[in-house]
Design a protein that fits this description.
Layout (H helix, E strand, L loop, with lengths): L1 H57 L7 E2 L2 H7 L8 E5 L2 E8 L2 E8 L4 H16 L8 E5 L4 E5 L6 H5 L10 H19 L5 E3 L8 E3 L5 E3 L6 E3 L8 E2 L12 H6 L1 E2 L3
Parallel strand pairs: 1-5
Antiparallel strand pairs: 2-3, 3-4, 4-6, 5-6, 7-10, 8-9, 11-12
Enzyme class: transferase
Protein name: RING-type E3 ubiquitin transferase
Organism: Canna indica (Indian-shot)
Length: about 260
Amino acid sequence: MEYLRKQRNEMFEELQKAHAHFLLISLQSEHAKLHRERDNAVKQAEELREKLEEMAASILGAECFSEFSYSELEQATSNFDDSLKIGEGGYGSVYKGTLREKTVVIKKLNSQDMQGQKEFHKEMSALSKLRHPNLVNLIGTCSEAWALIYDFLPNGSLEDRLTCNDNTPPLTWQTRIRVAAEICSALNFLHSNDSLSVVHGGLKPTNILLDANFISKLSDFGICRLAQSNNSTTLYRCTHAMGNFVYMDPEFLASGEIIPL
């Protein structure tokens, strides 16, 4: 009986060793696979960045948006029904609607607030002059309602996806790397424009939106700074910082000088 017990224990130990060895080999294989996927994702992201910058350069300066009436926006949002409201802040409210058989987002700024009016003009001025695959697409405006109309992006914000809001699955590392490369491409495009440099001023996960294919779009240009290029490297001096301090450049907070490049 003792002999059988000893044999059983030895067999159990051998099985444990074999399982541990198999687990180690599996982990090493998975580690190597993830490294290959990461390298491929970085390579694809760099190729995509170069392609997007070429595309953006070819369509720079196009002003192609429509002017909508207030009644059209009322119809698109069922008179700005609260059930269609998808966002709200000090600037105003954001609604989802259907406009001319197209699903859109309507950003209705507070017409009674000077800041809302400033944001309307700044955002319209920036996005009417700039087109890039990773900037939100301004479809049109409505001066009566101080409203800006954009394409609807069904996958919400990067913040929503990083926090798995609504029980959505986490983004893959390949998607995360691609999104980072796309936003870098958009910022490089904004900063290096020869005729008009744009400093976004509010870069954060909530202002990065994702379309149906998880292509990222930089949004919310309400506090951006527009600056004509000149011989100086400092394009803009600001005495009152706006935006979320958590995401701000410490050098800008200290000096008030915006130097994008």
